[in-house]
Amino acid sequence: MGRGRPTEATPPTTIRAMRPGDVRHVVAIESASSAVPWTRAMFLAELGRPTSIELVALRASKVLGYLIATRHADVWHILNVCVAEDARGQGHGAALMDEAVSRGDRYAHLGYTLEVRVSNSAAVRLYRRKGFVERGLRPGYYSDNGEAALIMWRSGAPEDES
Ligand SMILES: CC(C)(COP(=O)(O)OP(=O)(O)OC[C@H]1O[C@@H](n2cnc3c(N)ncnc32)[C@H](O)[C@@H]1OP(=O)(O)O)[C@@H](O)C(=O)NCCC(=O)NCCS
Question: What does the angle CA 123 – CA 156 – CA 115 come to, to the nearest 5 degrees?
């Protein structure tokens, strides 16, 4: 259920900055999707930080997914990407990643990094499609089951030499 190519009648996906009013929808998706869910306070803490990118994906004004990234020194760290289970496989995850990279590339010299469960093949495929490559493993990274994290990396846009 829920997977499948949208028809011509399907409204387009919109990506915009997350607002405080989105957070209860975001938390509902997060709680249903993650073994170690972020809390409302954690999402609210990210909102409006100049060093953060917080995005939501909407279709027909309904929040279907979100992405949080934060800038540390010379890298954007993608902390959380999630799409509601019944809305997966329709390009929302890809659209969120594209917008995050577009915003992050305003700091053209920065790269991007993230951790992902080694078993999370859907997410790893998405990140590979978006230019991320595997750069290492953190054994025991996830506290719920001791699973290892794959560390992935993507370069930023080349610096403008003009
Ligand atoms: C990982 C995750 C964010 C991907 O989101 P998504 O919206 O399903 O991603 P996309 O739709 O962009 O891409 C997923 C698949 O749908 C396919 N797809 C993309 N656009 C599509 C469309 N319009 N119609 C049908 N399929 C489409 C993609 O080709 C891709 O196929 P694949 O499974 O063969 O790789 C989602 O699975 C999720 O929320 N998982 C739970 C949370 C999680 O694991 N987050 C990552 C933590 S690091």
Answer: 30
127 catalytically annotated: yes
pLDDT digits (tens, 9 = 90+) for 114-126: 999 999 999 999 9
State the pLDDT confidence band at 74, using cuts at 50, 70 and 90.
confident
Rounded distance between C-alpha atoms, residue 49 and residue 69, angstroms: 10
Cβ(120) to ligand 1 under 6 A?
Answer: yes
- Sheet arrangement for strand 62-72: 13-17, 52-59, 62-72, 75-83, 111-117, 149-154, 133-138
Quote the pTM value.
Answer: 0.91
Residue 113 host element (H or E): strand 111-117
Cβ atoms of 68 and 80 closer than 8 Å:
yes
Residue 5, pLDDT above cutoff 60: no
How many helices (DSSP H) and strands (DSSP E) are in the chain? 4, 7
CB within 8 Å of 136: residues ≥ 6 apart: 150, 151
DSSP-based three-state secondary structure for 84: coil
Q: CA nearest 18: which of 94, 89, 96, 115?
A: 96
Whether residue 108 is predicted with pLDDT greater than 80 in this model: the reply is no
- For ligand 1, whether the C-beta of 93 sits within 6 Å is yes
